[in-house]
Amino acid sequence: MLKRERQKKLLNLIRAKRIGTQEALRAHLERAGVTATQSSVSRDLEELGVVKHHGAYAMPHVNGDSARGLLSLDVAGDVLVIAKCVAGRASAVAVEIDDAAIPEIVGTLAGEDTIFIAVRNQKTQRTVMRRIWELVS
Fold first, then answer.
1. How does pLDDT run along the chain (137 residues), one tens digit per residue?
2. Are 6 and 37 in contact (CB under 8 A)?
3. What are 19-27's contacts with CB under 8 Å, separation 24+?
4. From the centroid of its chain, how far is CA 3?
5. Coil, strand, or helix at residue 8?
């Protein structure tokens, strides 16, 4: 299974259940048909910006931010949209964008706080930006 698919399942589990240990997360993933080691779960949690809150894993809230860590979107050239995120949140935001399957998006590449979003052409850049804001709001 691809890392992105595993991370998607991990995020879905964290949103759906109160889970307090990495071993419990790994076991839930296994029951969902996703084999993962504790170390890969640990790396995924770090990369996705997951935190422990009151004894359970959760997505962090950024000053009550409903945009899930997305700070800004801007165009770069004719076929790129650049998303700036809160440090550590770019991978989680990219997973959400990918899950939305926006047809104008060719692909995403996430770093620590930046996502490069490749779009089909210049005409679709603004449409993609609007759709992403709708997605995370």
1. 588 888 888 888 888 888 999 999 999 999 989 989 999 999 988 877 787 878 888 876 555 454 578 888 999 999 999 999 988 889 989 999 999 999 999 999 999 999 999 999 999 998 999 999 888 87
2. no
3. 19/56, 19/57, 20/52, 20/55, 20/56, 20/57, 25/57
4. 12
5. helix
Residue 94 in tokens: 């990219």
Which residue has 């779960």 as its token pair?
Answer: 41
Rounded to the nearest 10 degrees, the angle between the axes of helix 3-16 and helix 90-100 is: 100
**3-state class (DSSP) for residue 107:** strand
Q: How far apart are the C-alpha atoms of 55 and 6, rounded to whole Å?
A: 22
In the chain the first and final C-alpha atoms are separated, in Å, by 30
Amino acid at position 27, single letter: A
Helix axes 3-16, 38-48, angle to 10 degrees: 80
Distance (Å, whole) CA 119 – CA 106: 5
Residues in the chain: 137
Between CA 33 and CA 125, with CA 110 as vertex, the angle to 5 degrees is 115
